[in-house]
Amino acid sequence: MAGLVTAVRKKRRGVYEVCIDDDRMFLCPDDVLVRRRLEAGKRLSSSELEEILAEAEAALAVREALAIVSRFSRTQREMTASLQRKGFGPAAIDTAVRRLSEMGYIDDVGLAKRLVREFDERGDMGYWRKRQRLLDRGFDAHVIDAALGPLTEEAERQRALALARTRPAPTNEAQMRRLANYLYRRGFSESVVWWCLRQLGAEVDIDQW
User: Fold this and answer.
1) Is the dihedral of CA 150, 152, 158, 163 positive or negative?
2) Tens-digit pLDDT profile for the chain (209 aa)?
3) Sign of CA dihedral 185, 190, 191, 196
């Protein structure tokens, strides 16, 4: 795998195309280029070339990861998937995720807590909907448990009742069913939904549904 650097050409800002023996090339960020003193005519041993290829890919993965989080916060799992789609290998991805975690740009614990605060401010989700949303983002179960805290029946009841009161008041059984289905979809448990419906329409015999 040894080779001779035959050309170094600027590809885009901060990234160069390094040609090896005129039939191979790889992309290399400028900091790696300078550190490794890559220029036309430089001969590389097999071990040197392997090290440079790994170093360049990892550096490019870190740059791509920084660009991604500048647009939208990502979990570790989301960042891994994004970099995989970009074609980076496992070692480069691990390096990028670790670096951004060390810099605080990837923080699953902090992000999960922030999302839960946003869910609570919106007030339109029950515990199980919030949990599913976090699972969908790729958070680990222990991170989700810490962010959500313990499931409190009374708090869930009051949240469901407040949400139900934003809907048209049900006046018959069909409307009660529609409201119940809505609350189920928002992530409230059966016991909480039944309690909520009883507060809104005790005259409806929901035990017969």
Assistant:
1) positive
2) 689 999 999 999 999 999 999 899 999 999 999 999 999 999 999 999 999 999 999 999 999 999 999 999 999 999 999 999 999 999 999 999 999 999 999 999 999 999 999 999 999 999 999 999 999 999 999 999 999 999 999 999 999 999 999 998 888 888 989 999 999 999 999 999 999 998 987 455 555 55
3) positive
Say whether 209 sits in a helix, a strand or coil: coil
Which segments of 139-197 are extended strands (E)? none
Residues belonging to the chain: 209
- Spell out the residues 6+ positions from residue 114 whose beta carbon is closer than 8 angstroms to its own: none
Give the tokens for residue 176. 């009660």
Crossing angle for the helix pair 173-185 and 190-200, nearest 10 degrees?
A: 140
Q: What is the pTM of this model?
A: 0.84
- Distance, CA of 63 to CA of 88 (rounded, Å): 12
Residue (of 163, 88, 75) closest to 119 by Cα position? 163
- The two most distant CA atoms of the chain are separated, in Å, by 89
